[in-house]
Amino acid sequence: MSSGTSIRVGADIVKVAQVSDSIASFGERYLRRIYTEHEIASCAGPPSVTSAGLAARFAAKEATLKVLRPSEHRPDWRSMEVLRHPEGWCSMSLSGLAAELATRAGIGELAVSLTHEEGIAAAVVVALCNDEEVPGQPREPHERDLASNGVG
Amino acid sequence: MDEKIRSILTEHGRFPVDVAGIEDNEDLFEAGMTSHASVNVMLALEDEFDLEFPESMLRKSTFETVAAIRSALVELAAS
């Protein structure tokens, strides 16, 4: 990796049955607190298809949190939105606090990959970080900074 | 209140251990509660205590321990 850039990776898995149970227990309240209209629409279909798609999206949100590394307030789940494109591939769109955290970390774009199989959904998120200081934004300490300071 | 909190944790927390054995200040995530399960716990608490967690309280620390959950509920009830 060239100087001035670094990579962050986040991954997470979710049992599809747990999402099915949440929908059965809390219905619309569960859906509206976690997923955007687009995400819900993207997963429309038989219950098993819907649950699998939403489980993958929850995993993507969790994977994104691992990349953003919030220290105090956690971004709203809906501010980390999986966008499904007509060709079938997905991207991650950030807003609100999630977008602020990405800016602070020098993250310009996130790449996301979703999958589900045999009752398990998973997602991986990769971010390329520009470690140069962003004007007006406090830069987070980088692993190299910590190493040079004798930490870790 | 503690009894209801622990009942909800038992039903929705999906712990691999008996919730009765978890101390008030023991980390619930380290005890096995996943983030997804914590969402269910939050929704069940809202149902049980007829309140809604505002965005400002949606942080991991709010649901990190039984004591933290109790404090959050007391704070919400007083507001």
Question: Can you tell me about this structure?
Answer:
The complex is a heterodimer of chains A (152) and B (79). With 152 residues, chain A is of the alpha+beta class. Chain A has a single domain, classed as Ribosomal Protein L22, Chain A (Alpha-Beta Complex), CATH 3.90.470.20. Helices cover 41% and strands 28% of the residues of chain A. In chain A, the strands form 2 sheets. Chain A has a 3-stranded antiparallel β-sheet. In chain A, a hairpin with a 5-residue loop joins strand 2 (80-84) and strand 3 (90-94). In chain A, helix 1 crosses helix 3. By secondary structure, chain B is mainly alpha-helical. Chain B has one domain (2-78): Non-ribosomal Peptide Synthetase Peptidyl Carrier Protein, Chain A (Orthogonal Bundle), CATH 1.10.1200. Chain B has 3 helices and no strands. Chain B has helices spanning 2-12, 35-49, 66-78. The longest helix of chain B is centred in the middle third of the chain and has 15 residues, at 35-49. Chain B is globular, with a radius of gyration of 11 Å. The mean pLDDT of chain B is 91. The interface between A and B is medium-sized, with 19 and 17 residues.
| Count of discrete domains of chain B | 1
Beta strand % of chain A: 25-35%
What integer is the average pLDDT of chain A?
86
CATH class of chain B: Mainly Alpha
Q: State the share of residues found in helices of chain B, binned by percent.
A: 40-55%
- Report the count of strand segments of chain B: 0
Helix-strand category of chain B: mainly alpha
- Over the alpha carbons, how many angstroms does the gyration radius of chain B reach? 11 Å
What is the H/E string of chain B? HHH
Could you state the CATH homologous superfamily of chain A?
Answer: 4'-phosphopantetheinyl transferase domain
In CATH, the architecture of chain B is Orthogonal Bundle
Output the radius of gyration of chain A: 17 Å
Query: Any idea what the CATH architecture of chain A is?
Result: Alpha-Beta Complex
Taken from the alpha-carbon principal axes, the silhouette of chain B is globular
The number of helical segments of chain B is 3
